[in-house]
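Consider this:
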Amino acid sequence: MKPPYDAAVRAAIRKRMSPPNRESVAAIARSTGITTQTLYNWRAQWQKEGQLVPATSKAPEQWSPADKLAAVIQSAGLSGSDLGAFCRERGLYPKQLARWRQAAEDANSPTAPSMSDHKELQRKNQEQAREIRRLERELRKKEKALVEAAALLMVSEKCKALWPQDGES
């Protein structure tokens, strides 16, 4: 039978997992004696409830889209000092939230790219990457040829200096 954990313990764990602390599950498990699976289950439950508990210790810009959206949703009704307090508690900047909010709005706009547009962009990117690789190979060949020509020119000049031809001197 699993041991019961009261709400205070769970709240303390959530605070340790949440920004700006963002302690790893393994570190929390070592210090509390609660199994990692229990902690992962709690975090998944909190995320389903819309709590901001990123599944990473990375900086906010490297959070998953779901974690960024959770931060935007939680801060939606806040302004002024409340928004500032929310950001400080989570190690965020209001500009980050504004940028993430705009990205969420743009993703649902009527002009948002469709899946076929994404595939077309991917295809074009692949073509451009192939063209860049081809041009880089061509550039390397030309650089080698230029180095070789410069070496031949130097050897030619040295030969002229060492063995002047008839009429020179």
